[in-house]
């Protein structure tokens, strides 16, 4: 881009592409991992939602560190794209009270739920209805085999400012909880970096949708938030876990009712901005020889 003061997208882009956000986890200045997050719009302002394992740096089942050098993140950076990239820095470590997380966990499942929420009223002027998830109007009835989209950042920002859409299908009975947890399975070729991605059913104009027991034909594109993707069952499997919409709603409501703005001082969370850099594939494309271990 020649004009760094103006960010333009050539042609049409889907509205859901501005919902998912790129998030990076650090220990000090060392980048440990990247993932995806999004914001839910509530009457009390925006609430950040992502996977718990993104912030803890640990496998949410085994509690083992995810980084090869056993490093645990102490801060995270959320990027919002525009003429300038706005970065929101989140301090994940409270040195005065190391046991107190900087986020809110599910009211009944606690650490068992691989999703967390963080009320962020200070982002009200940045996050609005058009670039956040709404939990209103629970109108869709999904079925096994239904097509879904995991919208996130596999391997980082390989799509430039916009996330990548990965298509998948509901692989387990959606009304049945897996291992007693409010999750269902999705058959999707997702990759590292998509943890914390919102999962949507996306209906084009003319599609048949169900609402309150009746079927209708959509007159315009319609989107329905289904849940939060939290990774594959195994590295060699395309089966992944999605935390259900109802679980996300319980978490967000709990965060608003019981979570103060943060458990730590807001002054420890800050904004920064850098000029938007034109996207290049150079840092993402690997030669065949690089694949040899």
What's the short version?
With 293 residues, this protein is mainly beta. It is built from 2 helices and 15 strands.
What does this structure look like?
The protein is mostly beta strands. The chain is built from two helices and 15 strands. The strands form three sheets. It has a seven-stranded antiparallel β-sheet with strand order 6-3-2-1-4-5-15. Strands 7-8-9-14-13-10 form a six-stranded antiparallel beta barrel. Strands 11-12 form a two-stranded antiparallel sheet. 35% of the residues are buried. Residues 1-5 and 288-293 have low confidence and may be disordered.
Which structural category do the helix and sheet elements fall into?
A: mainly beta
Tally the beta strands: 15
Main sheet: which strands, in order across?
6-3-2-1-4-5-15
- Which sequence of SSEs, written as H and E, runs from N to C? EEEHEEEEEEEEEEEHE
Number of helices: 2
- Fraction of residues in β-strands: 25-35%
Gap from first CA to last CA: 37 Å
CATH architecture: Beta Barrel
- Give the domain tally: 1
- Please tell me the overall pLDDT: 83
The profile of the biggest β sheet is: 7 strands, antiparallel
Please identify the top-level CATH class. Mainly Beta
Our Rg estimate from Cα atoms comes to 19 Å
Considering the protein shown, what is the CATH homologous superfamily? Trypsin-like serine proteases
Give the quaternary arrangement of the chains: single chain
The shape, in one word, is globular
Low-pLDDT stretches: 1-5, 288-293
**Residues in helix, %:** under 10%
CATH topology: the name is Thrombin, subunit H
